[in-house]
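Minutes, project check-in
Item: structure for the 117-residue chain
Input as provided by the requester:
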Amino acid sequence: QVQLVESGGVLVQPGGSLRLSCAASGSIGCINVRGWHRQAPGRQRELVAGISSVGNIKYADSVKGRFTISRDNAKNTVYLQMNSLKPEDTGVYYCSFGTAWGRYDYWGQGTQVTVSS
């Protein structure tokens, strides 16, 4: 089992920046992909950014150039740096770990990000 705990979600003004953190514990040896998903009100959950064990990275088109995913293997932590935030970035952000792209077996509890003036 893998346990994931997110932190960092707050209310931020448009144009602002925020960094989300996801601390992992448990049996993470089988994990090959670490990602951040977002669920906005009335919309399906979508992959915002993901990083593989070999360093391949994917971003949703809507966040390219503004968001950066990174990881600290020594701390078993994944980060999502979000810059130039827009109101449409509002949603619950979930940390997600899995064995392959598109297969996310473990989820955090979610952290709320609200972008509003």
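Outcome recorded: The chain has no helices and eleven strands.
No further action items on this chain.
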